[in-house]
Amino acid sequence: MKSNTISLPTQKPLTSGRITQYVLGALVLGLIAWRIISVVFIEARYGADTWTRFAISGLILGGMYALIAIGYTLVYGILLMINFAHGEVMMSGAFGGYFVFEALRSLKVPTAADPNLNFLNAHPVISVIIAFIIGMAVASTTGYFLERIAYRPLRGAPRLVPLISAIGASIFLQNAAQLLFGPARRDYTNPTILTRGTGWSIPIGDSNVIFTYTGVLSIILSIGLMIALFVIVQRTKLGKAMRAVAQDKRTAALMGIDVDDVIGKTFIISGALAGAAGVMWGLHNGLVYYYIGFIPGIKAFTAAVMGGIGNIPGAMIGGLFLGILESVGPAALGIDFQLKDVIAFSILVLVLIFRPSGILGQVLSEEKV
What we know:
Elements: H1 16-43, H2 48-79, H3 86-106, H4 119-122, H5 124-151, H6 160-181, E1 186-187, E2 199-204, E3 207-212, H7 213-235, H8 237-247, H9 249-254, H10 259-285, E4 287-288, H11 294-307, H12 312-333, H13 340-354
Antiparallel strand pairs: 1-4, 2-3
């Protein structure tokens, strides 16, 4: 006979260590909340216009972090490894866009009104499109060969081995870029219509807030690319194959899916998104050099962990949240703005301690653990 009793799931007992963890977490959150209330409301150090500038800057930065974080998430979802060379893939895309702008700037298209006019300023929209296409293509190629050379031969090795390979690949790409392009920082030459610092002026409070053209372009492209990726993963044949391979490689292979081909295309897609973020970074911040991808790459990894590594919507939310928090955090806490990196990496530590699965983390099967 079937039993009529209902078995309730067992809960883990609260140990002294777990209780201490909760108490410390509550104290930290309380101190942070008290500091924010003191700086924002009691001292009122900044007005509404300044907070708006911080929020806009964070949203722009967060969109770039989200695009890079999605690359970490895609690779982890399929290979269960962290591609620590992904920041250097973004750097290669930034250099691709830089050299496109330099080439188009040197290409003269003289007119009667301006005999010194170049292609970059004569056709700015076409120039920006070409820069993004080339930057994304360079980054995609870098990501593809990175998988073929550094990761595919180690497919069956213990997880620590490809992780070490990824760190080595990161160092190799940094030094290769330094040897090829030199250690000096290069200025991104934008088209005139995308001159940095210019944009739409909107009155907020007692002053005007500028929505820069480069910032608006970055936000729109970031959102568009994230939506496009979500549609690809959810609605296309390739997306179904990617989800199948992420779930179970052996079963996917038995169903006729070319696992190596899907993994290669995953690196191409993640590289394209990182390359787009690299071109946006150059357009908005104006600098490119061999080390430009390292810090954004690590912060994007923080965003991926925050959102839930392996979860695409989580990476998007984590990137946007981290960008805004990094921009608004120092002002809200009343600390030096040079400490924004401390805030980002402190968040990584706190997330790993109190919620390792992230904001939208998924419960992994035994086979994935």
